[in-house]
Amino acid sequence: MNPVEVLPLDFSEAAQAKWTKRDNLLKQLESGVKSWDKLSAAEEQLLEDCPETKENIWDILGGGDGWTVMGGPRDVKASSSLANQGNVSYKAKNAYDLNYRNVWVEGVPGQGIGEYLEYSFPQYGPRITNILIVNGYVKSTAAYQNNSRAKKLKMYVKGKPYAILNLRDEIATQVFEVEPIGTNYPENHNGEDGVMWPIRFEIMEVYPGAKYEDVVITEIYFDGLDVLCLANGTMITMADGTKTPIEEIREGDAVRTWNENTKNYENAEVKGLACAMHHKLVKYVMESGNEIVATADHPFLLEQSEWTSSNPEASSLYKGFGHVVQLEVGGRLRATTGVEVVKAIEPFTSYQKTYTITKLTNGTNFIANDVITGIEDLDLD
Fold it and tell me: What is the pLDDT of residues 273-329, one digit of tens each?
C-alpha cells in the first residue's frame, strides 16, 4: 500500500524564524500594540501560515478535541527502544505525542528488522480511516539523512496481517487510507469501552542512514470517523415533528432536515448511524435554558448560515465543512424555535456514550435539541 498523500514538512532555519515572527506578532496583538482590524496583508498571511491553534513549529495538530484526541490510542509500546542519550529519550510514546521533535528509535543491533510499534485502542472507540506516518528524524535534514528510516512497515490489526505500507524517503507526513477499522457499539450495549485491541507496525525494510543503523520514526497517528457526536439523550426532531432520543434512532427512520437553498425544512431518511464513547465533551447552555452536550468539533448552523463549532480546525477536516468559524458565547444558532443564543460553553469531562447520524438520503444536517447540526458523511463533496 502506497501513501495517497505526501505532505512535505519544513523545519529549516527560515521556517523556524517565521514562527518566531508569528509569536512576536501575537504578543503585540495581545498587548494592544497592534490591532486585529489593522493587520497588513503580510501579517494576515503569516497568521494563516502559522496558525494560532499550534503553539509552535514542532506542534503537529495544535491539541484540541478532534479525532486524534477523541479517538486515538490509549497506549503505545515498542519491541525495543534505544537507551536515553543524556536528557533525550527515544521511548515508544514519543511516536504518539503529536510533536515533531521527539522520536522513537528501535534499540537492537543492526537495522531493526522485525522491531515494531504497537498502538492499543478501545474495543468500541471511533473507527480509523487514515494512518499518518512521519518517518525518520525530521527535525533537520542532517538528522534525517544520518539515521535510518523505515522503507516498508508490515501492519497488523488485532494480531492479523493487514497491509504492507510502502514509505517514501521524504521529510513529510505520509497518509494511508484504509477501510474503516474498529467496531461501533452494538445495539443495547451497556456503554463500557470493552477490551483493548492493537495495531502493530513492524519494520520490514529500511533506508540506511549515512552514519547510524538505528531506525527512527517520528510519529504515527490516526484520523477517522464517529467523533462528530451528540450525547445520549439528545432529542432528534422526526419528520412528523415528534422528538426521539438519538440513541433510539434507527436506519430507515425519517427525520427533519433544513434546506439552505429553499430556506425550508424537509424530510430525509436515515441511512447511517455511529456510536462511540467520549470523555472530552462540551455543554452549550442557551439563554432559553436549552442545553446541548456534544464533541467540541460537532458543527452547528449559525443564524447567518455559517457553520460553527468549539474546534473549527478539527471540524473543517470533515467533508462538507470546509469553512467553520469559532463558536463563542453570544453565538446565535439557527433553530426550529427561531434562534438559540449561546449563554455559556462549559467543559463536560465525564465519559458519555455518544451518537451521530452519518448519512441521510438528502440533506447535510438534522435537528438536535431544536438546533440545526451537521452530519458526518464521508460521501459529501
Answer: 877 666 568 999 999 999 999 988 889 999 998 999 988 876 776 667 778 899 999
- When the candidates are 3.40.30.10, 3.40.50.1950, 2.60.120.260, 2.40.50.100, the CATH number that belongs to 5-224 is 2.60.120.260
List, by residue range, all CATH 2.60.120.260 domains of the chain: 5-224
pTM of this structure? 0.69
Looking at CATH, the fold of the domain delimited by 230-374 is given as Endonuclease - Pi-scei; Chain A, domain 1 (2.170.16)
Cell triple for residue 3? 501513501
Question: Strand 307-309 vs strand 324-326: parallel, antiparallel, or unpaired?
Answer: parallel
Closest CA to 137 of 204, 209, 55, 57: 209
Q: Which residue spans of the chain are classified as CATH 2.170.16.10? A: 230-374
